Amino acid sequence: AMAKYYSAQAAAFVTSTAVDLFGGNGFTKEYPVEKFWRDAKIGQIYEGTSNMQLQTIAKMELDK
Asked: Catalytic: which of 30, 34, 47, 61?
């Protein structure tokens, strides 16, 4: 859960920054940045949202 949460957040941050750097072109399908951004967004919700991952992490820590 920790690895999924961290990697999803990092990917979202990096791809969002890349889209910002590309400006309006970052959202066009002419550049691969748009697909990377979409993939990062789905990574945040696939197999549980970030909030669900944080709840899983908290439960694991509290059960120790």
From this structure: 47
